[in-house]
């Protein structure tokens, strides 16, 4: 029957394999590999040949191996020899360092020398040393890590010893054979030649590479998987040719050429990557093809990325102003010196002539003086500012990372700051671009509803279960997996299920069983492997699905009544039953889920059923009894239960124990585990067990309790663990499992499903066509074990699936009406699900005749073996297969909102930040989630730009946008209010457009037109008028283009936040990228600047730490400019009294050390610890964020006011001592000392005035700086220090009361204006920040009242403004069709939902406007 067709197909497959191997292409490479990268075998230069260092290959190996790297890695930048030159070379890339180097060189020119040569070098040497030490320590930590990795051990085959020996990773070479055991890390990229798994599969966990904990399958090279024993390296006589090393993780091309010139293709499925971990497989052997820095993991390791913050760019421009100021001052000095010299009629006695007797003319002397002055006034350019900024940023990052509010207990993770130099940018964000799934939502997919054959099943019991989860604490959810025997947690919702009593009884017997073997659960379950609870997408909330009672009833008819079904039975029932059966088969089969066993979660589940009756498809139920006699046994060595039930329980149990020993599988320890995990009480294997099995279970369990391990295999199935690549897949497999359609095992060529508790069905797996973003669907092609026909099961997005269904002409007239009705009804259900915010999928099938399949296979083989246009051909092939489908039904999966998302979004919006949601989901789902998380409000007017509402041309999009804009502008321009003062900044709900509340929804197709150069400006103008933008069906590339557009065109500060690989490009393009370490691996985190575990943490990160980091750093930078200008001007004023001769009234050492030592630490402490407003107030009043967002602390005016204040203070500091000592015979250093001392007091007390919070650390540092200055000056004056020699100066002054008076008077007069300004600011016209700071001093009750009043003022202001600006809405909504603007975007609570009909199969379901949506409301 099937044999006739199977042979030609086998032959075709064989021919194809031969064809591939001779082509030298890749055998079974994934369809994603880009054909651009394909390299033909002729261009050997671009290829690499890998041969083992054994036997007859020896000579060739020595030739080839020289070209390849060994496995030693070095991630350090420096070595001992090159550290100094390379570090200096890098540091001199900084313009400031080059400037100071230039000054040092200049000071060595005798004509313009101002200081001792050594003194000028001091600041530069100090700065270079500090940075070099920091770089050196960073590099040393990398060196230690490298050393640790290089010295890890692995088993490498040794030629000499003819066996595998322990060898360090660094000694592994290309061509070496490596043997790995379970849980070992792979040391280099290697081609898999042997696996202890019977199917030639090796399971790897790629967490080390991309953070994903779910298992991936890798296959032994074709031709090697049939080996019974392990491969012998000595007998390996093939050579491998593969592509040159590259960083593409999803591609590997090459072939193995045997000694007889036969070739076998290689793909990424045959490659084990360095850094992954072997799981589920006892032993694997591979040959190394890439080692060390040529491995894909190392080529992907780009190291830390460097972004420059906005503040740093601003500082650079202000430094240029300082350079201009310096040149101006030096020009003044040069001209002054020239004029002063030319006023002497004869050569003055102090002007020493040159050796030839001539003296320098005044103009040349003036020119030389210009350079002398540059050396003298060099401190005006703050060299220490750069070092201080780096130190302050490290301090700020340290405080952020140690904030306990960012710790998330469930994931045991906290914030990671991956970019050290942009912390202050967090305080200036204007736009946030957020992904939806996994970022705003949990990415925990929970099966909520399904529609099969046009009939909807509400799963109300499941909804009640989810409510009970919401009530329970989060700790409870974690503990359910470990808490032995506790049934209270589940019984809360099991009561809703009418079979709860049976299940409880059943569980009791299991408890008794496992009770007799208390140690079993722990026998070999722990080890060094993580607990099953840690498997991705396997929390109880996702895995436990309570079946819908009505659907379960229908499903049970399949398992029980199908045998008795007579031919006269209702065909309608059997048709629906067939739909239901196929629907659940599709859920169980159409995926890439890996099956494993929980008490050793990384141990693969081999298909170990007892060979029970394989229930077949319902297409041919009448043939059932005929088939029973000749049915095929499953892969288990045991007889079926039907046969064994006639034997005595004893013999059966003894067979079981043999079976157990034979397999040595921990899977069989399942009973204790099952009893200990309450959430498994609902699992399929515990209910509706056939009667005889139950009896047998108890009998065998009691009788042999002391002799043998418990006969767990008698309960229909061990507890399985599903490892899926996405949470959607996991949710669907768990849903199928709840209905007793249990995925039991999966190998490369077959899938086994335990169907309805009656037996195993083993499907021959012919092809998997994986999901891709073009097709938006996935298909599996299987040979049905009963009908023996080829069946295609497809699941995908309804937007594409509905167009692939059979049309009326292709179906018989009898069925066409039913199918059209099903399609219509299912579409209605899908729209309802989308409005509820559920993720929707359509499930369909197609049965092919062998002839059709053979024809398609022929085309598909040609596509797979072609080199040019391979991807296009494979896509065509898939599309040819996925046509004329029969719709089975649809599913609705809920992705629950993360905790605190709506509060966070509201707070961020109050802070003046615009939030865009960019998602790949369909429009209705995205809009619903936007309402649930308060991104869109019920009062918002929504404008939709989508492919359905308007034609897809670019002109139509432009016309549409301009109409919407006109509407908005008419509405708002008539009654526009004058702009608000900053003082009342808290009133505006959004920084751009407080006057109008509109939302924009746009889809991917329309985005393509909108992002065209001609439409960008009008699109941005429109988005600026909207308070929220939702982009649905957006591709990863479109996301990054949007972020770049807003960043470059609007010159706005952007932040992108996402959790998956599809968000990486957006995260890298934004000014600040935030990754969420969620369920989708770590790609987003690896690409980000900051990584958080929950979206709600963004609130504190921006509103508190962002605000603090920005204000602290700006204040510190301004203080540095003030300090340097004030101090340098003292020298400048002195030039007017010394003939502009470049003389200093202070000793050079004190002059240089003043900035370097005496006043350097206080501003750093100020920059790290200053706190203008407490975290609590900043969180409660998000409006305060606008102060840092609008750079209020560092406006250009602030910079110039600071410089003017510095000029004033330097005038006071110079002239008060000048007039005090005027007319006396005081010497130059005695005049300079009080000026210098007063300057120190002024500069440090100025800092105290500016500090918003003074702690004991501030006090210690300021007092310490003053003491240090005096100690140094006294010690320096007490010794003989040529050439300046300020001998005993400070000692004399310390005994002179005038000195103290001068210092006191100078300090008070200099600081009075700034002090008065701050006092007036604090009392008469306080800024919002000062008002907020005042709240900190109130009692808790007063504080609450004050904050409430503040918020009320804000709401009143908003309302007044909104009423003033909102006119008739008709103009704004005019352009948008009524249906688009209102119906599709009503908030969740107002949308009329479809009632869950309990009617029969053939009737229409009607809408009931009163039904509230339980899921939509819960999500908010």
> What's the quaternary structure here?
single chain
- How large is the radius of gyration? 39 Å
How many helices does DSSP assign? 50
- The coarse overall form would be globular
Compute the number of strand runs. 34
Helix content: 40-55%
How would you state the average pLDDT, rounded? 76
Your description of this structure?
- The protein is globular.
- The protein has 1420 residues and is an alpha+beta fold.
- Helix 26 packs antiparallel against helix 27.
- The relative contact order is 0.09.
- 46% of the residues lie in helices and 13% in strands.
- The strands form six sheets. Strands 14-34-33-32-15-28-31-30-29 form a nine-stranded mixed beta sheet, with helices on both faces.
Quick gist of this model?
By secondary structure, the protein is of the alpha+beta class. It is built from 50 helices and 34 strands.
């Amino acid at each position: 029957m099937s044999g006739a067709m199977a042979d030609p197909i086998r032959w075709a497959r064989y021919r194809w394999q031969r064809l591939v191997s001779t082509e030298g292409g890749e055998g079974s490479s994934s369809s994603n590999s880009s054909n651009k990268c394909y390299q033909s075998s002729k261009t050997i230069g671009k290829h690499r040949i890998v041969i083992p260092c054994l036997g007859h290959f020896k000579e060739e190996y020595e030739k080839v191996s020289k070209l390849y790297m060994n496995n030693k890695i070095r991630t350090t930048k420096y070595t001992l020899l090159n550290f100094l030159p390379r570090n200096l070379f890098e540091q001199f890339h900084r313009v400031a360092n080059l400037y100071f180097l230039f000054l040092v060189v200049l000071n060595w020119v005798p004509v313009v020398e101002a200081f001792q040569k050594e003194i000028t070098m001091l600041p530069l040497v100090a700065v270079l040393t500090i940075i070099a030490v920091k770089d050196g320590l960073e590099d040393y930590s990398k060196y230690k890590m490298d050393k640790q990795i290089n010295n890890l051990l692995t088993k490498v085959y040794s030629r000499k010893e003819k066996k595998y020996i322990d060898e360090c990773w660094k000694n592994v070479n290309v061509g070496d054979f490596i043997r790995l055991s379970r849980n070992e890390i792979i040391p280099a990229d290697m081609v898999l030649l042997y696996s202890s798994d019977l199917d030639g599969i090796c399971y790897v966990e790629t967490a080390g590479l991309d953070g994903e904990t779910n298992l991936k399958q890798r296959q032994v090279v074709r031709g090697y998987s049939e080996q019974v024993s392990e491969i012998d390296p000595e007998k390996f006589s093939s050579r491998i040719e593969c592509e040159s090393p590259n960083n593409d993780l999803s591609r590997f091309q090459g072939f193995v050429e045997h000694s007889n010139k036969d070739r076998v293709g290689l793909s990424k499925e045959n490659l084990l990557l360095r850094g992954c971990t072997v799981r589920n497989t006892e032993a694997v052997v591979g040959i190394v093809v890439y080692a060390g820095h040529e491995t894909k993991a190392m080529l992907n390791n780009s190291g830390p990325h460097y972004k420059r913050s906005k503040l740093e760019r601003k500082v650079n421009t202000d430094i240029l102003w300082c350079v201009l100021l310096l040149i101006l001052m030096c020009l003044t000095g040069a001209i002054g010196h020239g004029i002063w010299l030319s006023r002497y009629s004869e050569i003055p006695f102090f002007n020493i002539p040159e050796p030839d007797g001539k003296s320098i003319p005044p103009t040349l002397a003036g020119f030389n003086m210009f350079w002398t002055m540059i050396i003298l006034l060099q401190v005006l350019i703050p060299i220490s500012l750069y070092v201080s900024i780096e130190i302050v940023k490290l301090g700020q990052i340290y405080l952020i990372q140690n904030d306990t509010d960012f710790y998330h207990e469930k994931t045991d993770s906290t914030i990671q700051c991956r970019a050290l130099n942009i912390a202050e940018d967090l305080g200036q964000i204007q736009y946030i671009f957020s992904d939806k799934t996994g970022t705003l939502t949990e990415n925990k997919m929970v099966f909520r509803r399904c529609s099969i054959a046009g009939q909807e099943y509400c799963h109300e019991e499941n909804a009640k279960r989810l409510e009970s989860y919401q009530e329970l604490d989060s700790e409870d959810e974690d503990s359910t997996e470990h808490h032995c025997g506790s049934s209270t947690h589940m019984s809360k919702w099991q009561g809703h299920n009418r079979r709860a009593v049976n299940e409880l009884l059943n569980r009791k017997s299991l408890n008794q069983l496992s009770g007799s073997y208390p140690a079993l659960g722990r026998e070999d379950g722990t080890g060094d492997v993580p607990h099953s609870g840690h498997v991705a997408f396997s929390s109880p909330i996702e895995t436990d699905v309570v079946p819908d009672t009505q659907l379960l009833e229908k499903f049970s008819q399949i398992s029980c009544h199908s045998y008795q079904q007579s031919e006269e039975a209702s065909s309608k029932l059997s048709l629906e039953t067939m739909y239901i059966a196929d629907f659940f088969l599709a859920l169980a089969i159409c995926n890439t889920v890996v099956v494993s066993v929980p008490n050793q979660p990384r141990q693969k589940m081999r298909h170990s059923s007892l060979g029970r009756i394989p229930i077949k498809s319902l297409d041919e139920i009448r043939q059932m009894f005929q088939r029973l006699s000749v049915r095929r046994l499953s892969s288990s060595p045991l007889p079926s239960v039907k046969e064994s039930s006639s034997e005595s329980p004893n013999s059966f149990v003894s067979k079981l124990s043999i079976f157990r020993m034979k397999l040595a599988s921990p899977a069989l320890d399942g009973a204790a585990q099952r009893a200990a995990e309450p959430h498994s009480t609902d699992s399929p294997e515990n209910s509706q067990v056939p009667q005889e099995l139950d009896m047998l279970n108890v009998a065998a369990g009691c009788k042999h309790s002391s002799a043998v391990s418990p006969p767990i295999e008698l309960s229909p199935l061990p507890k399985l663990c599903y490892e899926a690549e996405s949470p959607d897949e996991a949710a669907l497999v768990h849903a199928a499992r709840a209905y007793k359609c249990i995925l039991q095992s999966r190998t490369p060529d077959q899938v086994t499903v335990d169907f309805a508790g009656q037996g195993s069905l083993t499907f021959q797996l012919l092809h998997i066509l994986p999901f891709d973003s073009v097709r938006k669907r996935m298909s599996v092609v299987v040979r049905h074990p009963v009908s023996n026909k080829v069946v295609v099961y497809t699941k995908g997005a309804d937007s594409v699936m509905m167009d692939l269904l059979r049309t009326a002409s292709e179906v018989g007239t009898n069925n066409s009406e039913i199918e059209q009705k099903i399609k219509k009804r299912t579409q209605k259900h899908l729209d309802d699900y989308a409005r509820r915010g559920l993720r929707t999928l359509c499930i369909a099938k197609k049965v092919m005749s062998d002839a059709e399949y053979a024809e398609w296979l022929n085309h598909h083989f040609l596509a797979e073996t072609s080199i040019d246009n391979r991807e296009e051909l494979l896509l065509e092939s898939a599309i040819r297969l996925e046509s004329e489908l029969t719709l089975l039904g649809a599913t609705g999966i809920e992705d629950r909102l993360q905790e605190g998302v709506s509060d966070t979004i509201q707070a961020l919006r109050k802070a003046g930040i615009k939030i865009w949601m960019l998602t790949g989901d369909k429009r209705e789902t995205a809009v619903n989630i936007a309402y649930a998380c308060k991104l869109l409000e019920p009062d918002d007017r929504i404008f939709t730009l989508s492919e359905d509402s308007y034609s897809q041309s670019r002109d139509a999009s432009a016309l549409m946008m301009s109409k919407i804009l006109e509407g908005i502008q008419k509405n708002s321009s008539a009654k526009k209010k004058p702009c608000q003062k900053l003082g009342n900044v808290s009133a505006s709900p959004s920084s751009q457009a407080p006057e109008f509340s509109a939302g924009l929804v746009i889809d991917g197709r329309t985005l393509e037109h909108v992002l065209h150069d001609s439409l960008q400006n009008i699109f941005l103008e429109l988005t600026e008028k909207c308070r929220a933008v939702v982009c649905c069906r957006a591709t990863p590339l479109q996301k990054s283009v949007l972020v770049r557009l807003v960043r470059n065109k609007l010159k706005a500060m952007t932040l992108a936040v996402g959790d998956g690989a599809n968000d990486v490009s957006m995260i890298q393009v934004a000014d600040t990228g935030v990754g969420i370490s969620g369920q989708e691996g770590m790609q987003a985190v690896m690409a980000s600047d900051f990584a958080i575990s929950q979206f709600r943490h963004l609130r504190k990160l921006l509103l508190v730490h962002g605000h603090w980091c920005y204000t602290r750093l700006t204040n510190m930078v301004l203080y540095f400019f003030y300090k340097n200008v004030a101090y340098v001007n003292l020298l400048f004023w002195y030039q007017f009294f010394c003939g502009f001769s470049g003389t200093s009234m202070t000793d050079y050492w004190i002059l240089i050390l003043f900035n370097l030592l005496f006043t350097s630490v206080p501003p750093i402490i100020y920059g790290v610890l200053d706190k203008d407003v407490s975290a609590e107030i900043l969180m409660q009043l998000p409006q305060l964020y606008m102060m840092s967002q609008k750079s209020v602390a560092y406006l250009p005016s602030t910079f110039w006011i600071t410089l003017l204040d510095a000029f004033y203070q330097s005038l006071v500091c110079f002239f008060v001592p000048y007039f005090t000592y005027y007319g006396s015979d005081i010497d130059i250093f005695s005049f300079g000392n009080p000026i210098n001392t007063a300057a120190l007091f002024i500069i440090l007390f100025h800092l105290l005035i500016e500090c918003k919070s003074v702690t004991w650390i501030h006090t210690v540092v300021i007092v310490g700086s003053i003491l240090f200055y005096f100690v140094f000056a006294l010690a320096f004056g007490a010794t003989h220090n040529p050439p300046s020699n300020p001998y005993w100066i400070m000692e004399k002054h310390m005994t002179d009361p005038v000195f103290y008076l001068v210092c006191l008077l100078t300090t008070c007069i200099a600081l009075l204006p700034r002090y008065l300004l701050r006092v007036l600011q604090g009392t008469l016209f306080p800024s919002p920040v000062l008002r907020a700071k005042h709240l900190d001093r109130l009692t808790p009750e007063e504080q609450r009242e004050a904050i409430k009043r503040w918020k009320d003022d804000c709401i009143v202001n908003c309302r007044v403004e909104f009423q003033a600006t909102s006119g008739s809405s008709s103009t704004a909504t005019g352009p948008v069709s009524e249906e688009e603007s209102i119906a599709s975007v009503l908030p969740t609570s107002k949308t009329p939902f479809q009632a869950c009909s309990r009617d029969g199969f053939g009737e229409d379901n009607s809408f009931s406007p009163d039904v509230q949506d339980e899921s939509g409301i819960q999500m908010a």
